[in-house]
Design a protein that fits this description.
Radius of gyration: 17 Å
Largest sheet: 10 strands, antiparallel
Number of helices: 5
Order of helices and strands: HEEEEEHHEHEEEEH
Distance between the termini: 13 Å
Helix content: 25-40%
Strand order of the largest sheet: 1-2-3-4-5-10-9-8-7-6
Strand content: 25-35%
Number of strands: 10
Shape: globular
Length: 196
């Protein structure tokens, strides 16, 4: 689903009801203007914008400032996603354990994804010793792929399907990725509320 200005406004209003604070409000008549929201604990930051080519949402969580700089501990970027997907991830973002990143906690990720109905499509041995592990949603419409490149030490994850394209940073917590999987599985839809 495209993250158009109506969807972005709905996400922003929902998060403000959850005590997120707005730092900037998008104006539909100004291309490139954006929503900037900060979580209640001032760790999470959600930036949503629409330019001439596409709309996107970037969720990042930062640690404590070091030498005057706040470096993001992890981030993900959605180019297509429903309001439920973005809200599910944002609501667990600030409390998720940074000690369980998706790229290094594949056993935990597999266990948590299986609990919400997702299945690993790569074999167990290949997942342990290969360069990728892949899961699919209960209906088979969505896939999550975690890639590991030991020679470059770069690790990535991506989730895609008919209504979602989400790039996931390697250090994004398992809990945040599982909240996205739950939203896709229909187990978690903004407490039953519809999208405006």
């Amino acid at each position: 689903m495209e993250l158009n200005s109506d969807v972005q406004r709905y996400i922003s209003e929902s998060l403000m009801a959850d005590l997120w604070q707005t730092r900037q409000i998008a104006h539909p008549s100004y291309p490139g203007s954006k929503w900037v929201l900060v979580g209640p604990q001032h760790r999470g930051r959600l930036v949503m914008m629409t330019d001439l080519f596409e709309a996107s949402a970037r969720l990042a969580v930062s640690g404590a400032p070091l030498s005057g700089h706040v470096a993001p501990d992890w981030h993900l970027e959605a180019r297509f996603a429903s309001a439920e997907m973005i809200l599910a991830m944002a609501r667990v973002a600030e409390t998720a354990s940074n000690a369980e990143p998706v790229a290094w906690s594949q056993h935990l990720l597999n266990r948590r994804l299986r609990a919400v109905g997702w299945n690993r499509v790569t074999g167990r041995i290949r997942a342990l010793f290969g360069s990728t592990a892949e899961w699919e949603s209960p209906g088979g419409n969505y896939r999550l792929k975690v890639s590991v490149h030991p020679e470059r030490r770069a690790r990535t994850a991506e989730l895609w399907g008919p209504e979602a394209l989400v790039s996931i940073g390697a250090t994004t917590p398992v809990a945040v990725v599982v909240s996205l999987a739950e939203a896709i599985s229909g187990k978690r839809f903004d407490n039953g509320k519809g999208v405006a």
